[in-house]
């Protein structure tokens, strides 16, 4: 009789609550089972948010930025710099894992709860603007990749938009996550392409000892430096991973699995980013500087130096990068807006007809971004770099809120940041502020920097 009553009670619950409860029950069963294989199954069940956020960070805008970087500055400074970005991104994203697992609430919701409506609204608006701009770069990549297969931009971009919206609106979080992970596998296609380009491995090795900057410190170099940082750590990543951890059902007991998930994603992200820089530096030596390089030039050069099959693989990787990031950023926008608006239903487990206000902000942001890409004569190459730079400008404020939350003992209890975690995180914030200041100075006082 009790089981019948329980089933009847479950039927009265909203679909998103019911699905989340079922997912957590599955995790609990795996958690309670003993033995090596049970732990392995639990790890596989918990894998997802960290890998997705990191690989989605190698988005279409990132692929284009890394290619522009390699073509402009060769096998020098940016290779060891991107290796350094692996632990930087892990330090930042690990804090969101802990915050989500302990509070079981999204990032925007926590800012509203702890710091009030003004700062909550500020952070949500900050994110939505940054997300809308970043989505533009994703559809640039999707359109350019499909164009390499003969699909016109006017058809390719709407096709990409339709795919993103269908996957986001159909099914539930687990299905969305699995589809995203399958697509994300294509991100590694850039690694064999880099190997096929036959780079100068001696020059790659020397870069770690010299950190050489071809052409010296210029405003163009600072702009690309900021762009590379902005495509490695971005505001949407904080909101996405914390909300994904909550939808996933992670608890403090599984935080170590969340860290493993994030570390795997960070390592893959770094390897792929470095591979793209090496590839571009090898097939496009001496190309024009920051922002002037169009993605079609990159595709053409890959085809000329390695072959038409390689060009097709690069285009396929570009489409994947745009799709996976567009899906993640669209979800991030809906999660953050839903939390900011205090919506009762704010989960990818909810049916669209039951949660129109939740899904609408993400849908609108994606649609507007796609329309911007279709504007005739839009400077897409410069726009891509500018968006990555703006992500770096937005990041310090987002990181400061994250730092305040993970050091709040009332919120985190024993899971607050350690001294070393705070030193690393504050150092990252300081680096961002310093680099933003240096770039601003190069614009205001151009005579100081060539």
Description of the molecule:
The protein has 450 residues and is mainly alpha-helical. It has a single domain, classed as Amino acid/polyamine transporter I, CATH 1.20.1740. The protein has helices at residues 2-12, 15-32, 36-46, 49-57, 60-73, 78-103, 107-147, 153-169, 173-184, 190-196, 201-210, 219-230, 235-248, 255-283, 295-305, 308-340, 356-373, 380-406, 409-412, 419-444. The longest helix has 41 residues, at 107-147. The chain starts with a helix and ends in a 6-residue tail after the last helix.
Number of distinct helices: 20
The CATH architecture category equals: Up-down Bundle
Under CATH, the topology can be stated as: Amino acid/polyamine transporter I
Distance between the termini: 79 Å
Percent of residues in helices: over 70%
Number of β-strand runs? 0
The H/E string reads: HHHHHHHHHHHHHHHHHHHH
């Amino acid at each position: 009789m009790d089981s019948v009553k329980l089933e009847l009670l479950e039927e009265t619950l909203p679909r998103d609550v019911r699905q989340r409860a079922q997912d957590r029950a599955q995790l609990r069963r795996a958690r309670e089972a003993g033995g090596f294989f049970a732990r392995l199954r639990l790890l596989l069940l918990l894998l997802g948010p960290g890998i997705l956020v990191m690989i989605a960070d190698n988005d279409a805008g990132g692929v284009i930025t890394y290619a522009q970087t390699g073509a402009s500055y060769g096998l020098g400074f940016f290779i060891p710099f991107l290796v350094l970005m692996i632990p930087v991104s892990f330090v930042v994203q690990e804090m969101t894992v802990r915050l989500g697992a302990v509070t079981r609430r999204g990032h925007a919701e926590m800012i509203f709860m702890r710091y009030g409506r003004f700062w909550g609204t500020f952070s949500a608006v900050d994110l939505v603007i940054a997300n809308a701009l970043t989505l533009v770069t994703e559809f640039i990549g999707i359109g350019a990749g499909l164009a390499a297969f003969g699909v016109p931009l006017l058809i390719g971009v709407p096709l990409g938009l339709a795919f993103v919206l269908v996957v986001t609106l159909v099914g539930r979080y687990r299905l969305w996550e699995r589809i995203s992970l399958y697509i994300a596998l294509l991100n590694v296609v850039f690694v064999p392409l880099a190997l096929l380009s036959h780079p100068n491995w001696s020059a790659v090795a020397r870069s770690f000892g010299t950190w050489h900057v071809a052409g010296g410190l210029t405003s163009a170099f600072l702009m690309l430096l900021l762009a590379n940082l902005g495509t490695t750590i971005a505001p949407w990543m904080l909101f996405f991973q914390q909300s994904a951890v909550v939808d996933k059902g992670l608890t403090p007991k599984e935080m170590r699995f969340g860290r493993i998930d994030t570390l795997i994603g960070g390592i893959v992200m770094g390897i792929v980013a470095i591979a793209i820089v090496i590839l571009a530096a090898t097939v496009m030596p001496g190309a024009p500087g920051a922002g002037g390089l169009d993605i079609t030039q990159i595709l053409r050069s890959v085809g000329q130096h390695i072959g038409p099959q390689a060009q097709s693989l690069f285009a396929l990787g570009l489409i994947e990068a745009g799709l996976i990031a567009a899906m993640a950023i669209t979800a991030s926008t809906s999660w953050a807006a839903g939390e900011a608006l205090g919506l009762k239903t704010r989960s990818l487990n909810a049916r669209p007809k039951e949660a129109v206000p939740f899904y609408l902000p993400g849908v609108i942001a994606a649609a507007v971004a796609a329309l911007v890409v279709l504007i005739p004569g839009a400077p897409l190459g410069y726009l891509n770099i500018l968006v990555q730079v703006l992500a770096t400008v937005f990041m310090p404020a987002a990181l400061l809120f994250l730092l305040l939350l993970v050091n709040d003992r009332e919120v985190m209890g024993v899971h607050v940041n350690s001294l070393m975690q705070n030193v690393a995180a504050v150092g990252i914030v300081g680096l961002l502020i310093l680099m933003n200041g240096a770039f601003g100075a190069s614009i205001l006082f151009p005579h100081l920097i060539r």
